[in-house]
Amino acid sequence: MVRKKEENSSRYSQLEEGANRAKPVLHQHAREIQPFNKIARLPNALDEVVCAKSIENLNQLLADTMTLRDMYKKHHWQLGGPTFYQLHRLFDKHYEQQNESVDAIAERIQSLGGVSIAGAPGLAGWSDADALSHAIADALDRSRDRVSTALAEKEDYLAAYAALAELRPVVDRFFDEVMVMDPDPAQRDNRLALLRALHELFAPLADFSKLQVEKTA
After folding, report:
1. CATH superfamily label, 48-123
2. Could you give the C-alpha distances from 167 to 67, 128, 131, 136, 204, in angstroms and in order?
3. Nearest to residue 138, comparing CAs of 186, 194, 199?
4. Cβ distance 151 to 157 under 8 Å?
5. Cβ pair 150, 156 in contact under 8 A
6. DSSP element (H, E) containing 171
7. Contact between residue 105 and residue 65 where contact means Cβ atoms under 8 Å apart
8. What is the pLDDT of residue 37?
9. Predicted TM-score (pTM) of this structure
10. DSSP conformation class of 27
11. CA pair distance 57, 77, nearest whole angstrom
């Protein structure tokens, strides 16, 4: 009986010792290997300025791709309705494709000697949606003045159409890269307001609701 108690006590001591060894070592301060925005020179035959600009552009692309990837997963979770199953699988497939793109872009940044963004803190401030919203709002203000002047003072429709045509690059980017129906009500309302302003700007010149699309065989 005594021997059994001694064996149990010894086994408990060994377990306690193992548990203590398995505890993480906290409050360590390791040396930073490479700060963000610093380039490690690698034998890639590219000038440092070229590498720096490429890394900056790729990190922006990485931020946008990570945002799109996470939005696919979010909507994959939150679907409902009669087409739930088909969309559930479709969004998950797109999520996996975007995830592969994230990995490829991040590895390319590393191969250029840069440090890729990662996680929510790194992603903050890199998302392009807000910048594009501000850009299209500024472009609308400029075009509104030019269209108003062209129509009110000269009835110069060609000048008005030319002013509207200059909106195309920023409008194309807005529709390609920004989710108008954002889950955040405030963001959604702001972006819908931009689209209403865009419609009001075009309204005096053309009624696009009258356009018809012909089906081709």
Report:
1. Ferritin, core subunit, four-helix bundle (1.20.1260.10)
2. 25, 18, 15, 8, 16
3. 194
4. yes
5. yes
6. helix 168-177
7. yes
8. 73
9. 0.49
10. S
11. 31
